[in-house]
Amino acid sequence: EPGLLVGRIEQRDPLRRFDGYVTPGATSGKIARDVLDKGDQVYLSGESGDQVYLSGDILVMDELGYLYFRERAGDSFRWRGENVSSAEVEAALSRLLGHAGVVVYGVEIPGVEGRAGMAAIADPQARVDVAGLYQALSSALPPFARPVFIRLRTHLDTTGTFKLQKTRLRGEGWDPRRVPDPLFVLDPPRGRYVTLDGEMRDRICAGKCRF
């Protein structure tokens, strides 16, 4: 079954030290305490204790003991009572779009339980056929995994380590008043994506659209 890759922290061992990040909050978020023995962690004093570094990588192990990367922790979200893997949706979309850059994440809809899928797609040449995209996705993904929102960008920003910046995109959400890129939303009765403008946003926030 999928599991989180962790590493034991030993401050006196050069290979197992963890000096943390510039931001204290980021450092504390990467450390799990009370893992094996409760109360024996003294990370801040620099002594060796039972602290575990949380890598954020989800791995799976096969019957031979080989480990394979599955996805990053937090990249999954729950929608329509199902867990959606961002990595699986990204892979499916990228294949359909000729290996275009894709980032998938969950966003909230007022009054709706869970997080709806949103896909940011790199489309520098404006070639993505959004109108026909949903039909292509219908054969590639189950209904709960198909993105509700689509955002087209000229490019996808990366971090200093070349990871796609998903956190900022998630924070910007799907409000056309805040997002400068073309936005589209799924219209289930019509079975296609339609332009997401201010009027459509108000309808969604008022609960007049069912997904």
TrEMBL record:
<keyword id="KW-0445">Lipid transport</keyword>
<dbReference type="GO" id="GO:0005886">
    <property type="term" value="C:plasma membrane"/>
</dbReference>
<keyword id="KW-0276">Fatty acid metabolism</keyword>
<dbReference type="GO" id="GO:0005324">
    <property type="term" value="F:long-chain fatty acid transmembrane transporter activity"/>
</dbReference>
<dbReference type="GO" id="GO:0044539">
    <property type="term" value="P:long-chain fatty acid import into cell"/>
</dbReference>
<dbReference type="GO" id="GO:0090434">
    <property type="term" value="F:oleoyl-CoA ligase activity"/>
</dbReference>
<dbReference type="InterPro" id="IPR045851">
    <property type="entry name" value="AMP-bd_C_sf"/>
</dbReference>
<dbReference type="Pfam" id="PF13193">
    <property type="entry name" value="AMP-binding_C"/>
</dbReference>
<keyword id="KW-0443">Lipid metabolism</keyword>
<feature type="domain" description="AMP-binding enzyme C-terminal">
    <location>
        <begin position="88"/>
        <end position="163"/>
    </location>
</feature>
<dbReference type="InterPro" id="IPR025110">
    <property type="entry name" value="AMP-bd_C"/>
</dbReference>
<dbReference type="GO" id="GO:0005524">
    <property type="term" value="F:ATP binding"/>
</dbReference>
<dbReference type="GO" id="GO:0001579">
    <property type="term" value="P:medium-chain fatty acid transport"/>
</dbReference>
<protein>
    <recommendedName>
        <fullName>long-chain-fatty-acid--CoA ligase</fullName>
        <ecNumber>6.2.1.3</ecNumber>
    </recommendedName>
</protein>
<comment type="similarity">
    <text>Belongs to the ATP-dependent AMP-binding enzyme family.</text>
</comment>
<dbReference type="GO" id="GO:0005789">
    <property type="term" value="C:endoplasmic reticulum membrane"/>
</dbReference>
<keyword id="KW-0436">Ligase</keyword>
<keyword id="KW-0547">Nucleotide-binding</keyword>
<keyword id="KW-0813">Transport</keyword>
<keyword id="KW-0067">ATP-binding</keyword>
